[in-house]
Each structure stands twice: as C-alpha cells, then as structure tokens.
C-alpha cells in the first residue's frame, strides 16, 4: 500500500440538498463539522446537528451560520441543535423520540459520532465497553429507531426518492481480532466485547468498526433501497481529535503521522457527504472509500463471517427491544 492516500475529488457540483432535512451526529468538530459545511455549500434547507452538550451545539450553529454571511437570507438554512450522548441508551431513545416528535421529515441521517480508545473503559450508563457501546451499539439502535421517519419521508417525496442512512465506518475493521479468532457459538457478542480479560487494546476500534460493517450489510437485506439506502463509508486517515483520549506520547506520534499522511477534515468529509446523499442505490449495503464501493474482506463472506453477522443482528434486535419496546415492529423491517 502506498504511504500517501489517494486524492478525493471535489463533490459533484450537481449535488443539491435544497428542500432536504439532514441529520449529522457528532457535529461539534472534525469530520462532522466539516460535513455540515459541505451540506451548507450544497444548499441544504434544514440541518440537524447533535452534540453531547447543547452549549457546544449553539457555538457550532453560530459558526455554521457565519458561513452564510453575505448570501440571500431567504435561503438561509434552518439549523436545529439536539443533545445526544451515545454512551447512554436512554439518551439515544430520548433523542429519537424528540426528533420524530419535532421534525416532520428526514431525508438523510449521517451517523458520524464515534471514539477511539486503547484503554479499557466501561460506559457508566450501560455497563458495556465504551468502544462497542458508542461506535457500534448506539449507532445501530439509533439507525433502527430512525428508519420509520426516513422511510415515511421517502414515500412522501414526489417523485419517490430514497432517503439515506449512512454510518461512518473504517477499513481498519479488517484488523479486528475477531476475524482471526471468532467468538465461539456458546458466547454472545455482548459477553465477548465486555470481557476485560480477553480484550486487546489495539483491536477495540477495529472490532467496533467490524460490527458496523456487518450491521450495514445485514440491515440492507431488511430494507428496500427504493425507500432507504443504507451504507457506510471510510473517510481514510483524517486530522481530527478522535484520538484525544490517548496518552501524550501516543498523541505526539499520532500527530507526526497525521501531519504527513492524513487528509484534512474538509477533504475527508467529502466521502461522508457523497455516501450520505449522492452515492445512489448501488451503494446499498456497501462501504464507500473515496467515491467507490469497497469489496468486503474474504472473512465476511466465509461461513464464520456469515454466522457472526447473523448472531450480531439477533443480539442487536434484542438490545433494541429491551431498550425501546415495540421498536422492531414500528421499524417495519423485512424480517
């Protein structure tokens, strides 16, 4: 593999989000904030941003609107700020309920928020390991909770136009320990991910992104792409504060590598916005890298990978129903 990453072309000028409502989670910095600016530049009408603290969201809102100075105020987008903490099931379900109660339509959901940890950390709200909780489980549950609104929006659009449900993933999923040492049939995914004795620091992030990739692949089989296009994407190595929780020596090494190899958030976020709004039905169930579908690694298509995908799906639906009873039925999945 070449040391330098391939270039990312500018977003197509034809990409137009006028009349669209777009949700971007984790919008306070990095890729999320940069994605918001791209949507703004491509005429988004309503932009919904989520942050862990509302005060941060108001700052981001002001910064985004500042980009509109000198333009036609009649076309100024509406920006809504919602609180969302992905370490908490109750926060996820409360956010989804508030969104559906206050927002009549949702054309695009870009689930960008995530973390990068090397040390073992448990969510105080759920008891789950934090990378698993934030990067995978909360995003999966939120996806399923948002499906009815995304579907109804598509069906009400004339002519019918599919909505997008897009989750930020990573090619690093191929480094997951699970691909070399699959979870045994007698152990649940939740048990394996919450076993501190067997965790591997450098695999936590890759494990969580493997689950995202498997979830997107499975969810796409239960959702008609004519109503909701489900995909994920890898923005590549980007200069963000994702690794802010690492020790100082590791952060310094990371900054050196990023300074040489990484894309800027503005460039990396082009991949996010293209996947979540421009990729089309051919991206359904796929991962996009730059603007192309990336084939899955061979393990995913093996018998072990297929069993793991089915197992993860069952446990995810169980977690959804446990934390939001009746949501499986309301999601109207093709089960």
UniProtKB/TrEMBL annotation:
Keyword tRNA processing, does the record have it?
Answer: no
Origin: domain of life: Eukaryota
Asked if Oxidoreductase is a keyword of the record, the answer is yes
InterPro entries, per the entry: NAD(P)-bd_dom_sf, SDR_fam
Keywords in UniProt for this one? Answer: NADP, Oxidoreductase
| Family assignment from sequence similarity | Belongs to the short-chain dehydrogenases/reductases (SDR) family.
PANTHER family given for it?
A: DEHYDROGENASE_REDUCTASE FAMILY PROTEIN, PUTATIVE (AFU_ORTHOLOGUE AFUA_3G08550)-RELATED, RETINOL DEHYDROGENASE
What name does UniProt use for this protein? NAD(P)-binding protein
């Amino acid at each position: 593999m070449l040391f330098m990453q391939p270039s990312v072309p500018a977003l197509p000028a034809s990409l137009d989000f006028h009349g669209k409502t777009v949700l971007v989670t984790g919008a306070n910095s990095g890729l999320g904030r940069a994605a918001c600016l791209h949507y703004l530049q491509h005429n988004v009408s309503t932009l919904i941003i989520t942050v862990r603290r509302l005060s941060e969201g108001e700052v981001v809102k002001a910064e985004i609107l500042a980009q509109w100075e000198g333009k036609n105020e009649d076309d100024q987008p509406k920006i809504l700020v919602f609180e969302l903490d992905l370490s908490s099931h109750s926060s996820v379900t409360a956010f989804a309920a508030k969104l559906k109660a206050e927002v009549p339509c949702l054309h695009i959901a870009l689930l960008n928020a995530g973390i990068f940890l090397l040390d073992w950390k448990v969510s105080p709200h759920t008891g789950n390991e934090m990378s698993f909780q934030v990067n995978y489980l909360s995003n999966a549950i939120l996806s399923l909770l948002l499906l009815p609104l995304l579907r109804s929006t598509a069906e009400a659009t004339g002519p019918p136009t599919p909505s997008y449900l897009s989750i930020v993933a990573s090619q690093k999923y191929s480094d997951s320990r699970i691909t070399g040492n699959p979870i045994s049939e007698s152990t649940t995914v939740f048990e394996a991910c919450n076993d501190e004795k067997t965790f591997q620091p450098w695999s936590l992030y890759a494990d969580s992104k493997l689950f995202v990739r498997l979830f997107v692949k499975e969810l796409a089989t239960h959702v008609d792409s004519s109503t909701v296009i489900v995909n994920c994407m890898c923005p590549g190595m980007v200069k963000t504060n994702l690794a802010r929780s690492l020790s100082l020596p590791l952060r310094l090494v990371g900054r050196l590598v990023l300074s040489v190899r990484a894309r800027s958030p503005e460039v990396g976020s082009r991949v996010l916005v293209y996947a979540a709004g421009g990729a089309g039905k051919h991206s359904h169930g796929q991962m996009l890298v730059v603007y192309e579908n990336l084939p899955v690694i061979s393990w995913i298509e093996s018998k072990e990978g297929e069993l793991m995908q089915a197992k993860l799906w069952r446990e995810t639906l169980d977690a959804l129903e446990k934390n939001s009873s009746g949501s499986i039925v309301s999601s109207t999945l093709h089960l």
